[in-house]
Amino acid sequence: MKLYDYFRSSAAYRVRIALNLKGVAPERAFVHLRKGDQRADEYLSLNPQGLVPSLVTDDGDVLTQSVAILEWLDETFHEPRILPRDAAGRARVRSLALAIACDIHPINNLRVLNYLTGTLGVTEAQKNGWYKYWIDVGFEALETRLARDGATGRFCHGDAPTVADICLVPQMANARRVDFDFGPYPTLTRIEAACQALPAFVAAAPSNQPDAE
Amino acid sequence: MKLYDYFRSSAAYRVRIALNLKGVAPERAFVHLRKGDQRADEYLSLNPQGLVPSLVTDDGDVLTQSVAILEWLDETFHEPRILPRDAAGRARVRSLALAIACDIHPINNLRVLNYLTGTLGVTEAQKNGWYKYWIDVGFEALETRLARDGATGRFCHGDAPTVADICLVPQMANARRVDFDFGPYPTLTRIEAACQALPAFVAAAPSNQPDAE
């Protein structure tokens, strides 16, 4: 197996956490997003979206889209499970994960920020305002859901990490890179701390990658 | 079961298609997004994200995030399957679906467009350029993947509709609402036509909903 990775990509960070939880260590290749490696023909032939991560399986299948990769990892390497066994629990975990993976992260992705400052000519201050705004909108809803729901435990769903935590921690890391106020988000902060007590999460952090700058 | 719906929401449109394919007809409630019904306390208490769709199950669980709802529907109402049975096929279908559900749709969602024209003061022409740009970027990659891959059949994956088609058709409908050039996308257009030959897709179209304007 081979993972196409970039230390600062939060989508790749998700997959790194899941691989660590499963105890799976693929070969690694690094795609430098800020240098534009993802737009090289060689990488585009692998992943026409030009995004990371991509995971090439031992069967030669090229898997893309981090949440699809997380699902595949859980279907392929069964223990520990990162999705609950019951359909209602799975729906809850997937919804929490997608509230980040669909509704926060893509809006703040590098290519969107480049369009804002390049094509639309917005200022750095406006760009930073945009970045924090979409995290706030997303985190407000997540905090409300997690704080009120009895299914929340030490982690987003019960007392073991799931795909929801795997999406939450990289998004929290993105927020930590800007001057973001975590005051309104005590439940998210508590769950992040529980995750960061686990070696699988620590080892996946951007600063602990071979390509970190 | 009760579906909170809005005729023009393409996330709700996905769920309507899946329900029709499964032959499941929940009670319906309509949340008028352009009038702001999604920000009323009553709806926010159900879905703190203030987005549609939401699906309340017969057990009283509130399911949110359309892709999570599609997964739940397939786990709960087994036939016809909208995800392949093999892990590699499931990964492929989920990746195609998420390339739309994560990387096109949220960037062009109503609330994002409102931020562009409101907070950032971009012109209508710039907003329309943004809208088409993100569809083009996403469709280019999808067209490349679908056109070259032997797993593509009459539909995105083989000869029966899956979650990938369920995400594709509403995104095509969004593109049809603007002056969008489908010329570069013959495979997407062919698959859309195959879907529109099925009553489940036709009945789910925005113009065929009780709340259509």
Core attributes:
4 strands, 4-stranded mixed β-sheet, homodimer, alpha+beta, Glutaredoxin, 213 residues, Glutathione S-transferase Yfyf (Class Pi), Chain A, domain 2
What does this molecule look like?
- Two copies of one chain form a homodimer.
- Chain A is α+β, with helices and mostly antiparallel strands and 213 residues long.
- The longest helix of chain A has 25 residues.
- Chain A folds into two domains: 79 residues, Glutaredoxin; 115 residues, Glutathione S-transferase Yfyf (Class Pi), Chain A, domain 2, CATH 1.20.1050.
- In chain A, 46% of the residues are buried.
- Chain A has a four-stranded mixed beta sheet with strand order 2-1-3-4, covered by helices on one side.
- The mean pLDDT of chain A is 97.
- Chains A and B meet through helix 3, helix 4, helix 5 and helix 6 of A and helix 3, helix 4, helix 5 and helix 6 of B.
